[in-house]
């Protein structure tokens, strides 16, 4: 019946005026009937003002994964409500489905499940809930927009966690918890045992040898309870994209892998994000709380389109870290930024701390350097070689100041930084 009435009204509106009636009274009657139909349709549409919304579900999700958020629609009115509902989120929240049909009897509730797959880090907040109840003739509708607050935090993806088991196995070898104990390495005394072929003669304990009447050597293990201070540069250079990934996200991934590894090694790990001021920091977190604290602190960080204040960063570090530690600066090997900002300040930093710089290189530069197809490719190759030469020169200059440098592509920067940390442990430099 609703479809028949709707078609009849549309036919009346579409017909030429002379065919409707010979007088203006007939035309007015048609328009009056149409208005009455709209009013009746509006009256028969469900009352949306009696709705109440409640939320529950996930409050955080790792980037690339899916979270579930439940919206409960409660009908406090006296009539059944049939409507279409849209739960509005920012596009980067990746909310689905876009719209759903709801049928809520008076005094009852219905649940609407939303799936969120964020495409960017940070807090994703629900904007509003829009409900539209259309009358049986389809001529009029009641619509309500009402906020239903909820926030889902998109955490860093941490794709390098797949490397953690291999790095932990290497760590167990260094600390002697594995059968393949590496003899003579480390700086903290572990135990005595009999000499075997291949042992370093410098590790022989002559007093114990004299007491036992047999050659005895000392075994060592890397020191524990060292301090690692991770510094994220959130200045303009971190905004650059390497492939499809911002440099800042690559640095976060490397920091998470190193933090997980160092905390398992018994070292204390702190985090600082800095450009012109402190953006976030994590200090004093326990081994079990470190990774959750780091990912939640990193999640809302966005690069600032301004030059990092190297002097402010160094003074902040010197003020907060009194004892010797490993300072890992995750930044870009930008010659202008480092030579004018960080390089003059390195002597006072390296005098107190062991400094390591980790930078993400662009594999596209390597591809361009190999191009020889045409004249444009040759020019690109020349520019790429110039960039690589500048990077090698800057790396050599940093190492001359006693700074360890890790320079690797996005997929390799996290394991390369972890390997550099383990090498320092094995050499007893940490």
TrEMBL record:
Residues 192-391 form the DUF58 domain. It comes from the Bacteria. Pfam families: DUF58 (PF01882). InterPro entries: DUF58. This is DUF58 domain-containing protein. It comes from Actinomadura graeca.
